[in-house]
Amino acid sequence: MSYFFLLLTATRAIAQSETDSLRQLNDRLDSLFIDEVEDRRTPDKVLHAEPLYIDLIRDLGARKGEREWNVGMGLTDNLYYDTYDMLIEYEWAPVNRLGLEVEIPITLYGINGRDSGQNGLAIPPANRIESLKLAAQWSFLVSERAKTTLALGYINSIKLADIQDLSRVSTVTGNQFNPFLIAAKRWGNRFHTLVYTGPVLTYAFQSKHWKSRFEMNSSVHYMIPGTRNFVGLEVNQSVAGRQSSVVMRPQLRVGVTSNLLLGIVTGIPLSRQEQRLSSFLRLIYEPAHKNRKPVQNG
């Protein structure tokens, strides 16, 4: 009996030792990855896990010379038709802490077969190149000590006509104004939170009519130890007058190569009167850039 007790004690001690060793290894990997992002380059920058659906304009605390290509594809199951979204965007940082972006989003529509055949409900909207989006984002507060970054930004979207009307009407139909504020914080080495919020104002040139809504986007992510991979939840809320919509977006990001990432997003609306489930993929390519400071020994 005593032999069995000693064997059990030794086994538990070995298992505990292996668990402690694995925890120490993960902590070490976290520290090395954070050090690669924050401490080996200048100026200061805080590592944040950023949402995949509502994409930021370059990394928070962007450093001069950073750049990134994004290609996105999405499918939304609506009540009477499906929406196919595509986008291509280019982001770069001409100076420290300032990110710029050019994006072209395209939306295509197709009937999904649920129509009852009444009231023309089966007629989907016209296919369109949505807009030419030009954006800027300035990180005005970067605190490595507090693991916090604050940023202001602005997106200007030049609204374009439906593809079928491009030869008959003015190509530009309106303009959309979207100032925003971002607050992000890392909790320890692995948990990340972010809030992205601001008004969206749209002006139609032909009708001279304004539309407005307010958007509140929040996210929480857990970054896998020693990697750029994460899992998380993004919540997109939009309020226009007395109407509001909320979409929950579980998501994950995985590294394909050292400079190529794949983001996978699922959309779950809280109200499914018109919009149902959706999916979205984002391919992120970040070319290498030079702005490193020497690694300090000791």
How would you describe what is shown here?
The structure is a single chain. By secondary structure, the protein is mainly beta. It folds into two domains: 1-40; 48-285, monomeric porin ompg (Porin), CATH 2.40.160.40. It has one helix spanning 2-38; strands spanning 67-78, 81-95, 98-111, 128-129, 131-143, 148-160, 172-187, 191-204, 209-223, 230-240, 243-257, 260-269, 275-285. A twelve-stranded antiparallel barrel has the order 1-2-3-5-6-7-8-9-10-11-12-13. The protein is globular, with a radius of gyration of 23 Å. It starts with a helix and ends in a 13-residue tail after the last strand. Mean pLDDT is 86; it is low at 292-298. This is Phosphoribosylformylglycinamidine synthase. InterPro entries: HAEPLYID-like (IPR048131).
CATH architecture of the largest domain: Beta Barrel
Percent range of helical residues: 10-25%
Strand order in the sheet with the most strands = 1-2-3-5-6-7-8-9-10-11-12-13
CATH class of the largest domain: Mainly Beta
The structural domain count equals: 2
Number of strands: 13
Q: What's the mean pLDDT score?
A: 86
Q: What radius of gyration results from the CA coordinates?
A: 23 Å
What's the SSE pattern?
A: HEEEEEEEEEEEEE
Main sheet specs: 12 strands, antiparallel, barrel
What are the key terms here?
12-stranded antiparallel barrel; mainly beta; Porin; single chain; disordered C terminus; 12% helix
Write the layout of secondary structure elements.
Blueprint (H helix, E strand, L loop, with lengths): L1 H37 L28 E12 L2 E15 L2 E14 L16 E2 L1 E13 L4 E13 L11 E16 L3 E14 L4 E15 L6 E11 L2 E15 L2 E10 L5 E11 L13
Antiparallel strand pairs: 1-2, 1-13, 2-3, 3-4, 3-5, 5-6, 6-7, 7-8, 8-9, 9-10, 10-11, 11-12, 12-13
